[in-house]
Amino acid sequence: MILIINCGSSSLKYQLYTPDLAQVVASGMIAKIGEPEGYIDHFVGHRGEHHRCPVPNHRAAFALMMEYLQSPEYHVIECPRAITAIGHRAVHGGSVFFGSVLVDDAVMKALHECASYAPLHNPCNIIGIEEAQRMFPGTPNVVVFDTAFHQTIPARAHMYALPYELTQEHGIRRYGFHGTSCRYVSQRAADLLNRPIESLSMVVCHLGNGVTMDAVKGGQSIDTSIGFGTFGGVPMGTRAGDFDPAIIFHLVKDRGMSLEEVEEICYKKSGLLGLSGLSNDMREVSEAAAKGNARCQLAVDVFVYHIRKTIGAYAAAMGGLDALVFTAGIGENSAEIRAKVCEGLGFLGVEIDPRANEIARKGHPNISAISARAATLVVPTDEEKMIAIDTVQLTMAQPGAASVQMGHAPSTHGVAAS
Fold it and tell me: Binding site annotation covers 207?
């Protein structure tokens, strides 16, 4: 069995696959770790169970997961030895990791060194790996990085026009996120179009509470919207997206705010929530906009405008557009947002069929109009499946393959990356 772990600051998500990855045997989430009202949602097939219980720490969360996986009621696994490989999600690989890797001491050391790049995420990912090593001694662990897919972005796109030494000495550059999702979705889109991915120029719109826009040309990321941190690019649920950094200086110097206050505004009080004054949930914002709430309508308009503008920019960067792909919570579920984004993109060959757009989630991914020159697809993301695929490939690889995607290669810094 292949176990996939996504360890967050207060949650543990897991999926258990058959060795051939053909079936998800069990899945679940343990939430509110370290809080009084912890709980587990555990699913086996169509059966589900919700149970509230205190989960004081991540070690207790792993024990709870194993209790449910080994429960006689479900008969999922007999003992920990039934787990033959474990895959983990890590948000940020810095300039060290170019792809997924088998975990060894050198990898763990590098992971700790990358922790400061994503202080809200990476330390939790490390805890997940350490707990898995403790609970499943001798079982190989693989770590898959959200940033790795974007390591192919050339210097002209990943470099900021700041002093060159900041990139060379401190790794200040555009890293990008949601790469595991974008990698899975772009390959799936090529399969649906029955075309080799090497022949396609596509824009992947990962639209959820977090948003990544990605230009994928020939199967490689060549530009992406989120940069060094996780609040740049398109406005998100609570994150600001791109804005003039002079605003930060103004708020600190002229308005007397602390950097901590400005950071909280950028990450937690902006985006859909900040504009609408109502919610970070697009469903609630859209419903209120439809009822005449002007601020919510503004939030929708700003969100859609920045997505559409980015699509146009990426089409220009790639020299054309073969496919536009929507994924993640909003991208997969909001026919309204998809329709609004596609309005006015006819010059790129994007035209959608309104009826197909409405039924896209019912197994009809292609929402293109017959006259469209560029395909428009709705492709459900599956980051866990992508992690599982990498886990199987690396654990079946020859000895010595563990660190082939790790190291300070010239392409990670500066002009050499172009």
Answer: yes
Tokens matching residue 416? 């050499």
What is d(CA 59, CA 135) in angstroms, rounded to the nearest whole number? 9
Which of 83, 108, 63, 110 shows the shortest CA–CA distance to 18?
Answer: 83
Closest among 409, 325, 318 to 368, alpha carbons compared: 325
Q: How far is the C-alpha of 142 from the C-alpha of 20, rounded, in Å?
A: 17
- Has 194 been labeled as part of a binding site? no
**Which one, of 233, 227, 223, 243, lies nearest residue 316 by Cα?**
223
The answer to whether 287 is a known ligand-binding residue is: no
Q: Which amino acid is at 10?
A: S
User: Do the domains spanning 2-145 and 194-378 agree at the CATH topology level?
Assistant: yes
Residue spans of beta strands (DSSP E) within 279-369: 323-327
284 is in an annotated binding site: no
List C-alpha distances in Å: 330 to 10, 51, 285, 370: 24, 28, 12, 24
Domain residue limits, the chain: 2-145, 194-378
Q: Which residues are known to be catalytic?
A: 146
Closest CA to 406 of 185, 109, 168, 153: 109
Tens-digit pLDDT profile for residues 268-309: 899 999 999 999 999 999 999 999 999 999 999 999 999 999
Q: Which fold has domain 2-145?
A: Nucleotidyltransferase; domain 5 (3.30.420)
CATH 3.40.50.300 fits 194-378, yes or no: no
Indicate the pLDDT class of residue 314, thresholds 50, 70 and 90: very high
To the question of whether residue 282 is assigned a binding role by annotation, the answer is: yes
The angle that helices 282-290 and 294-318 make with each other, rounded to 10 degrees, is: 120
Q: Whole-angstrom distance between the N-terminal and C-terminal Cα of the chain?
A: 41
Average pLDDT over residues 103-130: 83
Q: Alpha-carbon distance 15 to 42, whole Å?
A: 10
Looking at residue 397, its pLDDT comes to 65
Q: Would you say 47 is a known binding-site residue?
A: no
Using an 8 Å Cβ cutoff, are 83 and 139 in contact?
yes
Q: How many CB atoms lie within 10 A of CB 398?
A: 5
CA 8 from chain centre, in angstroms, equals 13
Which element (helix H / strand E) includes 396?
Answer: none
